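One thing: mind reviewing this one?
=====
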Amino acid sequence: METIAQKYRKAVKKHLMYPKKYRQKYLQVLKNDLDACLEENPGASFRDLETCLGSPQSVAKSYLEEISPDVLNTYLRKRKRKIWIGIVSGTVLLVLLIALVIYIGRMHSGFTEETKVTVYTSSDVSVPSVPSKAVPS
C-alpha cells in the first residue's frame, strides 16, 4: 500500500517533464522535503502535504524554473522526436499488417480445389473374368 508521501511524490513526478538526471535529483530533494514536512506533522494527509509544500503541479513547476532553458528545450525536442518516431513506426507496422492480411486473403480465395474420392466396396465391384489358357501337356 502506498503511503501519503509516495502518492504525493508520484503526483509530482507525473508533472516533471525533463531529463532523467535532473528528475532523479529533484525527486531526492522532494523526498527530503517530504520527510521534513512529515516530521513536523506526523500522520499528515495528502491535503496537509499540499499545504506544507504546495500542489504537485506548483512543486514541479518550481523545479522546472531551476533548469536552464537550453537543457529543457533540447529534452523536449528529443522527446517529441521519439514520440513521432513511435507514432510513424506504429502506423507503418499497422499498414504492413493490413496489407499482409489482404494479400493472404486474396491469395487463398481463388485457389479452391475440389477432390472427389469414391470408395467402392467389394460387393459393388465386379471383377472381369480372365479366360484361362489351356496349358499343353
